[in-house]
Each structure stands twice: as structure tokens, then as C-alpha cells.
Amino acid sequence: MSLFGKQWRLWIRITNHEILVKTGTVPNLYSIIKEVEAVIKMVVWPLKNDNFAINPTRKGNGVKPIKNECMEHLKLNGWHLEKRLTIKADMKPGPLDAVKMIGGKAFALEWETENISSSHRAINKMVLGMLERVIIGGILILPSRAMYNYLTDRVGNFQELKPYFSAWKSFNIKDGFLSVIEIEHDTIDASSPLIPKGTDGWAEVKK
Predict the structure, then answer these.
(1) If 0-12 CB within 10 Å is exposed, 13-18 middle and 19+ buried, where does residue 165 land?
(2) What's the pLDDT tens digit per position in 97-120?
(3) Can you tell which superkingdom this protein's organism belongs to (predicted)?
């Protein structure tokens, strides 16, 4: 189920937006979705470029610097980064990449930078948070299979996670929203610098 259908534009492209859960009432849902999509559109490469041009070196590009640029824009819009939530009394999982508080509940966003197991953990963490009524909504951002070929080896990607969508759609959640956004580079350019791996190189690039 696609919320807005395919969207073609400059910068990173949103090639799919798959809804897994959409039930009850989620305050400000559509304004949050538009905000997240707008922030994704701000991610370019190289920096100060007018699109997202990826060097087609297989497994040659990093992932965290792409995420970090997105997170910086979210922070300017009132999102809390690396936010830890106590989902259950005996469970306090790792921090969420970004959280926006809505009426005392969290709307979470995760941008995948690790392997497919991490993608499963991210979705499960958000689903459990909704079942416990701590999280009201969540979005996971994943690269497309085409983009995956040029990124760090084995990073989670939309196509690899897709077979499990039906399992998450079956959860009985009273009020909540959960979706997965698939992103892809705008163009391929062999002259484009490789995206640094890790975060240290990103600081050097931004100087």
C-alpha cells in the first residue's frame, strides 16, 4: 500500500512509501509525513550539490553520513536525536535515531545504517512501543536494492525486508502509524566522491 505513490524529483528519490500500520487517531500524522519527506529531499551528495549523485563503486559508499545530514535537518525542526525510551518497565532498548513528541507520546524515525537484522530490530522496537502505547508512530528509511549495491556491504534494504511486511501489518494496534520509506540516488556519477564510511570522514568533508 503506497501512501503517495512514486515521487520523482531531484536529490534523493522516494521510490516507495509502504504503510504497515495505520489505525485509529495519530495527531498531526500527515504534517509529520510531509516534514519527514521534505527533510529527505534536503539530502544531497556531494555537499552543496543540486542532486544526489552516487559514485557507482560497488560497496564503496558509506551510509551514516547520509543519515547524519537528515538528522541535522530534523533537529532544526524540533526532533530529539538519539532519544532513549523506556518501552516496558524491564526494557529500555537502544536509542531511536529521532523522536518528535506528540501529546506525551513519541513519533519515531529510524534511518538504517546497519544490516537487515538491525532493520528487523528497528521495526520491532517501534511496534512494541505502539503496543505499549509509548510510541504513536514510526518510520523506517531504507535504501532501494539499486542504491544498496553501492553502499556498505550488507546494509539493510527495502527489497530484503519486504517479504516480512505482512507480519507487521497483522498486529492489532489501536492507535498508530508505521511505514517504511524506500530511497534511491538521483543519478550515478563516476566522478562523484565516495561517501565516507563511518562519521569521522563526514566532519572533514564538511569543513
Answers:
(1) middle
(2) 999 999 889 999 999 999 999 999
(3) Bacteria
Does 206 map to a domain? Answer: no
pTM of the model: 0.89
- 163 CB contacts (<8 Å, ≥6 apart)? none
β-strands 176-184, 135-143: how paired?
parallel
- Among residues 112, 160, 184, 204, the one annotated as catalytic is 112
Residue 112 annotated among the catalytic residues of the structure: yes
Residue type, 192: S
CA angle 19, 132, 159 (to 5 degrees): 30
| Three-class DSSP category at 85 | coil
Q: Please, which residues have CB within 8 angstroms of residue 117's CB and are 6 or more apart in sequence?
A: 156
The total number of structural domains in the chain stands at 1
Domain encompassing residue 108:
13-183
Neighbours of 29 (CB within 10 A): 16
- Identify the CATH number of the domain in which residue 135 sits: 3.40.91.20
